[in-house]
Design brief:
Mean pLDDT: 91
Distance between the termini: 24 Å
Shape: globular
Number of helices: 5
Strand content: 25-35%
Low-confidence stretches: 199-203
Number of strands: 9
Radius of gyration: 17 Å
Length: about 210
């Protein structure tokens, strides 16, 4: 039987992580059309609202049902504004391991939201889901993503040479692919000791299962 992540909400002092909803379509499309998102992800550019709707209503639910991973909208607690996405992919239920990635909207950068959301997700994985390993991969030139990994206590394990494809703008404004390295990071349950003190709220997070 395939294991799957539950449909849940995770709350921190400032954020609510919850399943994506069709109301998120306009904000998700706007976030994915950002230059930095285009450079460091494989999201199609330009990213349309139809693409956002397919992600929310079809792709993300199918990935969760199949046991492959989980997509969570990151929203501000006070305003309910969409400020980012947390993704769990390449989940291995036998060894209780998954790969975590994060995207922050351009209108919400510089607030520490990526670190807060990633740490709360990792705490939930270790405490509630009994996972033993969370892996992150950051492009060699993506220093902002590397800072998030370091902030939440990840350990750098090495470099996958030439394993990452990023995108840059050409002189005519089009996107072209460039090859670079991946830095591999890991987070184990013992790596989080004391880390949650950086973030308020019951050790960093509160969960609400069976989200509706």
């Amino acid at each position: 039987m395939t294991s799957t992540f539950p449909s849940i909400s995770i709350s921190t002092e400032r954020l609510v992580l919850r399943p994506l909803d069709e109301d998120d379509v306009p904000a998700l499309a706007a976030m994915m059309n950002d230059e930095q998102v285009g450079a460091w992800t494989h999201v199609p550019q330009p990213f349309t609202e139809d693409g956002a709707r397919h992600w929310i209503t079809s792709w993300a639910p199918a990935e969760r049902t199949a046991g492959h991973g989980l997509d969570l909208a990151v929203t501000e607690f006070l305003t309910q504004r969409l400020v980012g996405i947390i993704q769990l992919t390449k989940t291995n239920w036998d060894i209780r391991s998954t790969e975590l990635s994060y995207i922050v909207a351009p209108w919400a950068r510089g607030e520490g939201y990526a670190s807060e959301a990633a740490l709360a997700t990792a705490q939930w994985l270790f405490h509630d889901q009994k996972f033993e390993r969370v892996e992150l991969r950051t492009a060699a030139d993506n220093t902002a993503s590397q800072q998030v990994a370091q902030k939440i206590g990840c350990i750098s394990e090495g470099v996958l040479r030439n394993a990452c494809i990023a995108r840059v703008r050409t002189e005519d404004g089009a996107w072209t692919q460039v090859r670079t390295d991946f830095i591999v990071w890991s987070l184990l349950p013992e790596d989080l000791e004391g880390t949650g003190e950086q973030f308020a709220g019951n050790g960093g997070f509160t969960t609400f299962p069976d989200w509706n």
